């Protein structure tokens, strides 16, 4: 940020949007926390898990999804820090890598649902199946919002936004993007592994 | 204190940008007010139909009955009755009280009382209203689906609300509407919190904010945290209904179910108990301010009131289990929830003392907002104390799901909030629309409403103590409810009186908004908070220059001030 | 208007009652219902005391400090020592007089009586399984063999018959949606939930017939989910039991799967979790 003249208002607007973003993320976390509460309730009141006649989902695709989403978080981080170091070319490249990884995460989810059906886990096959499907749906829904939020960065790529604004946008969208990654990792460990 | 100064935007000129797609918090506030009043009318009409059915089962509802229910000759049929009380609850809570208290007065008052030019995120504010409209349309649309609207009670417990109990589209639309409204309110809440943190006028600390803003801010915190919980709950309900998941299905009728219907109750009340405080906190805040303004002395123990409200906010998140005593939770949980519930009465007692302390040795002016505020103290006293029976396990075993509960929560949520809302409407009328409402008719409105309201809700508690359970269509069915019928009839007549009293309000309101020529002054009530330092009605940029706050919001009756008995917040404390 | 013939006599009856007769809760027929009534009355008297205080403040101050009578307000923030002490004292007084007391009483009654399950191995209790469905109550009492879900069980619809002066233990389940088994005359209710068995025990002491209702919204005809409770003197009950057993052995078709909706009885002390016996 050394090259930019720091507008007094800029610092404060950044504070404002980060306060709002924290509140928003608290809201989203409560949504996922409630789902997790449900999971915990079902998981620990059931005598056997997965319920009788069910087998666990195979781990390959979820693991792949986890890797993809972690990489996308990483590339987003690289993108943001390149922008802060004024490496605009790298900023753009990493941005597109993030977008690509985000999309491929969605594709991997499609494969996941396909694969679940093949292994005999259906939406209505006991609460075990319901949890896997419903939770991944909700997360995927938020991923769509996340991808749309990424698209809101396009004006910054094309230089249509001043540096301060871009920085605020990058930070807010980034917080949401990393949040989605964290949620997925928690879900991966809880509903697929445990 | 303000983090930054907002720019003055040019005044919008076209109809669309002025009234429909307006970013202006005052216009959005008014939009919410009209929206809320519209739904208040719909919900109130439903209430009258419910009351009519209970007092005169099988008799046609007067005037409009024969158009609405031609197949029964005008009487409300039992399935419609279930829809009516479900929609009445939903509409009143989510589409009338929330928009009026939080949407309208939250939007209108927060920036004005903080000395800001608008909300922190005007666009988000506008979207929040538009989502609320979409949600309202979804809900009203459900009335016209083949099997009718949702009919499982406003709590919509599964498995009644799953396909087992309600196969129609109406319940799905209901869940969807609640979800969308949740998103809308959460957006509003994030906006309010950010505004309160970042846009207070220079010099305004948190304890220099009027208590109204405290109430609204705490409400916003609860909204932002707990609406997503309900969101998750109804989302799973939608999945159960539409995609065939089995979260809430169990028992013989569920073919593959290993879910648990009680989980929904937990999720619902984790949200639902804070929700009742979401509804009442703004009213508490408004009343605390108005009592001080019209007693012409500072709010008694304002800091303690603010802290008491905060501690109630925190406690409210820990006590939800008292709604579920009859589901037989483990004894340990039951006792914990009971004990925690009881602790709420300490902060409640403190701010009751503070309210009365505000009146003590005041110089009370009985204008209509004050009358309504005193009304709130009275009815909330009754409502709060009757809550004790329901927080206690053993008495709750008897009273749970009886009309006693209905009477109790109407006293706390409906009566107090309604009166608080009226107080706020009469009070901020000049700032919103530039005119004062007719004082004489306002007082008539108050007394008739107060009589009717106590008749209705006390009557409900009486029949509840008599054992009459909730949501029944016909009290003639049971022997123990038959002897309560005269009380039911009395309740219904009270409800009709109360309903008709609102016509006075509507006429008075519409007249003041559209037809009244005589303008109110900039500060007709002679109080010192920031919104009264600017012209009436407030200009679109609110403050030409951002004010600098030098004293608290309740500086009235200071003997050192000469010429007037109050101080503006922008003046140095005398 | 066709309902008039039905409603008029009922209304006449009701209107002949005095005001307080009308308000009285249904007659208490259980051994422990008086605990609930007592706690209710205690809370009421305390509430009246504090509400009168509020009213004295509200109306008294409104009268005394009307701006015509009292034009000069007393300028105070209410943060003097005396003010804080008064507020605190009031807060603590309310907590001690009402909350702490009723929590204590309620805890004592709840753990000591209402969920203090009778020891079925030592005590002779009447055991009833209840299955709620839209919109009726099914009751099941074990036959001669004392085992539930067998052919000789006495199964009734909307008709519960129990002896007086004996503890009746209910296990409650629902077939479809959530119901709530409600005995207004015993001041008790317990939810019937699909997929999990809830329990309740009551000792009835007054023979007669009474209403059983469903207290939890369960659909359109929720209001008609009514059952009849008959409390017999003990010897009458044993007559009824022998008769009913003979009838049920004769009527029940052992091949019919429909009649086996019951489940294995496990006493509250021995097991916490019971599933449906499929």
Map the helices and strands.
The complex is a heterotrimer of chains A (194), B (574) and C (278).
Chain A: H1 8-45, H2 60-84, H3 88-118, H4 126-151, H5 154-157, H6 163-193
Helix pairs in contact in A: 1-6, 2-3, 2-6, 3-4, 4-6
Chain B: H1 15-20, H2 25-55, H3 65-68, H4 78-114, H5 122-141, H6 169-198, H7 211-242, H8 261-295, H9 302-316, H10 331-343, H11 345-359, H12 368-391, H13 393-399, H14 403-433, H15 439-465, H16 479-482, H17 485-515
Chain C: H1 4-16, H2 19-23, H3 33-64, H4 81-114, E1 126-133, E2 136-141, E3 154-157, E4 159-163, E5 167-174, E6 179-183, E7 188-192, E8 198-203, E9 208-214, E10 227-232, H5 234-251
Parallel strand pairs in C: 1-5, 4-10
Antiparallel strand pairs in C: 1-2, 2-3, 5-8, 6-7, 6-9, 9-10
Helix pairs in contact in C: 3-4
The total strand number of chain B stands at: 0
> H/E order of the elements of chain B?
HHHHHHHHHHHHHHHHH
Radius of gyration of chain B: 24 Å
Shape of chain C from CA axes?
Answer: elongated
Protein described:
The complex is a heterotrimer of chains A (194), B (574) and C (278). With 194 residues, chain A is mainly α. Chain A has one domain: Four Helix Bundle (Hemerythrin (Met), subunit A) (Up-down Bundle), CATH 1.20.120.80. Chain A has helices at residues 8-45, 60-84, 88-118, 126-151, 154-157, 163-193. In chain A, helix 1 (8-45) runs parallel beside helix 6 (163-193). The relative contact order of chain A is 0.16. Residues 1-5 of chain A have low confidence and may be disordered. Chain B has one domain (25-533): Cytochrome c oxidase-like, subunit I domain (Cytochrome C Oxidase, Chain A, Up-down Bundle), CATH 1.20.210. Helix content of chain B is 63%, strand content 0%. In chain B, helix 4 (78-114) packs across helix 8. Chain B is globular. In chain C, 37% of the residues lie in helices and 22% in strands. Chain C has helices at 4-16, 19-23, 33-64, 81-114, 234-251, and strands at residues 126-133, 136-141, 154-157, 159-163, 167-174, 179-183, 188-192, 198-203, 208-214, 227-232. In chain C, the strands form 2 sheets. In chain C, strands 3-2-1-5-8 form a 5-stranded mixed β-sheet. A 5-stranded mixed β-sheet of chain C has the order 4-10-9-6-7. Chain C starts with a helix and ends in a 27-residue tail after the last helix. Residues 271-278 of chain C have low confidence and may be disordered. Chains in contact: A-B, B-C. The A-B interface holds A 8-9, 12-13, 15-16, 19-20, 23-24, 26-28, 30-35, 37-38, 41-42, 45-46, 51, 123-127, 129-131, 133-134, 137-138 and B 3-5, 120-121, 186, 189-191, 193-194, 197-198, 224-229, 231-233, 235-236, 239, 243-247, 256-260, 263, 266-267, 270.
């Amino acid at each position: 940020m050394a090259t930019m003249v720091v507008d007094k208002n800029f610092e404060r607007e950044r504070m404002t949007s980060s306060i709002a973003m924290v509140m928003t993320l608290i809201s989203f976390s409560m949504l996922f926390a409630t789902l997790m509460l449900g999971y915990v309730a079902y998981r620990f009141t059931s005598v056997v898990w997965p319920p009788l006649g069910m087998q666990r989902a195979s781990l390959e695709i979820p693991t792949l999804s986890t890797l993809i989403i972690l990489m996308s978080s990483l590339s987003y981080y690289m993108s943001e820090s390149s922008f802060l170091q004024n490496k605009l070319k790298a900023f753009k490249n990493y941005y597109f890598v993030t977008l690509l990884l985000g999309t491929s995460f969605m594709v991997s989810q499609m494969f996941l649902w396909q694969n679940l059906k093949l292994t005999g886990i259906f939406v209505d096959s006991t609460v075990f199946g319901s949890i896997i499907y419903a939770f991944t749906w909700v997360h995927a829904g938020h991923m769509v919002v996340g991808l749309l939020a990424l698209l809101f960065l396009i004006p910054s790529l094309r230089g249509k936004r001043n540096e301060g604004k871009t920085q605020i946008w990058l930070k807010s969208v980034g917080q949401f993007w990393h949040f989605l990654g964290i949620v997925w990792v928690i879900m991966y460990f809880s509903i697929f592994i445990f | 204190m303000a983090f930054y100064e907002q720019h003055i935007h040019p005044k919008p000129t076209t109809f669309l940008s002025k009234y429909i797609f307006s970013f202006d918090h005052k216009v959005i506030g008014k939009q919410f007010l009209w929206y809320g009043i519209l739904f208040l009318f719909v919900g109130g009409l439903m209430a009258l139909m419910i009351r009519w059915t209970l007092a005169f089962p099988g008799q046609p509802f007067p005037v409009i009955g024969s158009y609405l229910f031609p197949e029964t000759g005008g009487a409300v049929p039992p399935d419609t009755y279930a829809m009516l009380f479900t929609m009445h609850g939903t509409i009143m809570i989510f589409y009338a009280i929330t928009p009026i208290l939080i949407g309208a007065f939250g939007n209108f008052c927060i920036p004005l009382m903080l000395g800001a030019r608008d909300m922190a995120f005007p666009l988000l504010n506008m979207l929040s209203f538009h989502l609320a409209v979409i949600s309202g349309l979804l809900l009203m649309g459900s009335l016209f689906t083949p099997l009718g609207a949702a009919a499982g009670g406003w709590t919509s417990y599964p498995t009644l609300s799953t396909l087992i109990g309600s196969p129609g589209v109406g319940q799905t639309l209901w869940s969807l509407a609640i979800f969308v409204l949740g998103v809308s309110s959460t957006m509003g809440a994030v906006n309010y919190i950010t505004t309160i943190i970042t846009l207070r006028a220079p010099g305004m600390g948190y304890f220099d904010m009027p208590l109204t803003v405290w109430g609204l801010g705490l409400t916003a915190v609860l909204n932002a945290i707990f609406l997503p919980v309900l969101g998750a709950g109804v989302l799973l309900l939608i999945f159960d209904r539409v995609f065939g998941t089995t979260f809430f299905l169990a028992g013989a009728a569920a073919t593959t179910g290993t879910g648990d219907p009680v989980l929904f109750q937990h999720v619902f009340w984790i949200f639902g108990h804070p929700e009742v405080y979401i509804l009442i906190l703004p009213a508490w805040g408004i009343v605390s301010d108005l009592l001080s303004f019209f007693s012409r002395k500072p709010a008694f123990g304002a800091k303690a009131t603010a802290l008491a409200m905060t501690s109630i906010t925190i406690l409210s998140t820990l006590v939800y289990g008292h709604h579920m005593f009859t589901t037989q939770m483990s004894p340990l949980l039951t006792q914990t929830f009971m004990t925690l519930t009881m602790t709420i009465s300490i902060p409640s007692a403190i701010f009751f003392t503070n309210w009365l302390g505000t009146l003590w040795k005041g110089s009370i002016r009985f204008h209509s907002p004050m009358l309504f505020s005193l009304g709130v103290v009275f009815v909330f006293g009754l409502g709060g104390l009757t809550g004790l029976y329901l927080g206690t396990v053993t008495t709750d075993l008897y009273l749970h799901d009886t009309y006693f509960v209905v009477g109790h929560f109407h006293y706390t949520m409906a009566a107090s909030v309604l009166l608080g809302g009226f107080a706020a409407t009469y009070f901020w009328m000049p700032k919103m629309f530039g005119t004062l409402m007719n004082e004489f008719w306002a007082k008539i409105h108050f007394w008739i409403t107060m009589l009717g309201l106590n008749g209705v809700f006390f009557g409900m508690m009486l029949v509840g103590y008599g054992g009459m359970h909730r949501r029944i269509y016909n009290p003639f069915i049971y022997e123990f409810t038959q002897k309560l019928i005269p009380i039911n009839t009395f309740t219904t007549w009270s409800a009709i009186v109360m309903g008709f009293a609102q016509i006075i309000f509507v006429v008075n309101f519409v007249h003041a908004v559209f037809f009244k020529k005589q303008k109110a002054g900039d500060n007709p009530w002679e109080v010192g908070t920031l919104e009264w330092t600017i012209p009436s009605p407030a200009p679109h940029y609110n403050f030409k220059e951002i004010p600098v706050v030098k004293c608290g919001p309740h500086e009235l009756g200071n003997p050192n001030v000469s010429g007037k008995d109050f101080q503006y917040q922008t003046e140095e404390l005398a | 208007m066709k309902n008039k013939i039905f409603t008029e006599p009922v209304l006449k009856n009701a209107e002949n009652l005095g005001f307080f007769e009308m308000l009285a809760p249904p007659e208490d027929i259980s051994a422990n219902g008086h605990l609930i009534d007592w706690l209710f009355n205690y809370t009421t008297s305390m509430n009246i005391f504090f509400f009168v205080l509020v009213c004295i403040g509200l109306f008294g101050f409104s009268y005394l400090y009307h701006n015509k009578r009292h034009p000069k307000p007393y300028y105070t923030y209410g943060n003097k020592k005396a003010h804080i002490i008064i507020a605190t004292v009031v807060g603590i007084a309310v907590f001690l007089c009402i909350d702490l007391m009723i929590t204590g009483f309620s805890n004592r009654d709840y753990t000591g009586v209402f969920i203090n399950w009778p020891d079925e191995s030592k005590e002779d209790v009447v055991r009833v399984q209840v299955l709620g469905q839209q919109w009726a109550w099914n009751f099941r009492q074990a036959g001669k063999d004392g085992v539930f879900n067998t052919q000789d069980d006495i199964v009734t619809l909307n008709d519960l018959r129990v002896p007086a002066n004996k503890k009746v233990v209910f296990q409650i389940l629902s077939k479809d949606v959530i119901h709530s088994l409600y005995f207004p005359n015993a001041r008790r209710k317990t939810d019937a939930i699909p997929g999990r068995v809830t329990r309740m025990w009551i000792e009835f002491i007054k023979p007669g017939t009474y209403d059983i209702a469903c207290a939890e919204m369960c659909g359109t005809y929720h209001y008609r989910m009514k059952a009849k409770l008959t409390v017999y003197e003990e010897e009458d009950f044993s007559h009824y039991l022998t008769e009913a057993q003979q009838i049920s052995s004769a009527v029940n078709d052992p091949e019919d799967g429909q009649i086996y909706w019951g489940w294995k009885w496990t006493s509250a002390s021995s097991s916490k979790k019971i599933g449906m016996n499929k």
